[in-house]
Design brief:
The chain is α/β, with parallel strands linked by helices and 396 residues long. 35% of the residues lie in helices and 25% in strands. Strands 1-2-7-8-9-10-11 form a seven-stranded mixed sheet, with helices on one face. α1 links the parallel β8 and β9. The mean pLDDT is 97. The protein binds MU-OXO-diiron (FEO).
Length: 396
Amino acid sequence: MYKAIQVSKDTWWTGVNDCETDMFESLWPLPQGVAYNAYVVTGSTATAAIDTVKGPYLDEYYNKLLQALNGKNLNYLVINHMEPDHAGLISQMKSRWPSLKFVGNAKTMPLLKGYHGIEEDIITVKDGDTLDLGGHVLRFSTVPMLHWPESMVTFDTSTGVLFSNDSFGGFGVHEGGLFDDEKVKERWEDEMLRYYACIVAKYSNVVQAALRKLGTLEIKNIFPSHGTLFRKDVKQVVSLYDKWSRFESDNGSVVVYGSMYGNTRRMAEAVCSGLSASDVKDIRLYDVSRTDPSYILRDIWKFKAFALLSCTYNTILYPPMEALCSKLLNRMPKNKFLGIAGSYSWSKGALTALQDFAEKIKLEKITPEVEVFTSPNSQDLEKCFELGKNLGGALA
Ligand code: FEO
């Protein structure tokens, strides 16, 4: 994406592709990279940039911004979000455009001061306030805790563009076109859901409130700060967000196992066979040691049932499974069926820990719980099969 791209009337994409960062937030792998989408709206009387990009991309961002401005001054920087992947260049903006004013809400300002030492030339807006650029009136809506306290979205009342910040964002760089109608849906949807499960899911109730609040706007386009821009399937993408934040999911199951020597893996395979016997066709079997948790979280969000099977390690839950359980408890998925099973040799521990997890996560638990000493015998495997069959039965 080598130049600024016009994406609506007087509106330009000035973002960048990041193909170098391996881990988003140093947590989540980026096999397809990530895009930081930034924008500028050039009105007849004033111009406004909507967010910036991550720090290392200064030259690329400036070049695009200058192309889009086409000789005009930059009057405002609208700060929808202070996280450094979008706010990374704020400090540098003032030296390039000395008359620049920073637009944010009350929760933005302490972060603006903390990260960039900026306390002057700021315009503090409230929910519903507007900024007239001449032919383009920007309306600001605060969406606190989606996913930071200062998070805000900006709506151009003239074009119907919603600059939605992290909401509706996804992993993956732009590989040609920016828009949904220029890409294959399968390419962006999975990475959008993985982004949702990792970054946004904890705040699903806030997403629901935001959807209600923004539902009164006549949104024609949604331009997020990561991933695909939406102009064709706006209703469809809103309904995806609605579905994910209401914890509605597809008929299918995830089976995750933590296994050192293959015994718990055999138990997990028996659960999968039971699911299949119940006519469940979409089954995802994951080794928790070898599959990044972001993909497991994504599919737990996608499907209605999941099973966790773990060996015991040093009297407690196998560490990668413990880490997954911690991530799930942080996000608290709802409306799903859960199966659990543990194995042990010289000390019990895994099943007790999974029972504790099941208690805390408050999902409907499907029986039987299975606990296996050393390696599973045929009766143990039949019990695991029964667990899978019952999970599948719950889906029917
Ligand atoms: Fe993409 Fe919350 O920053």
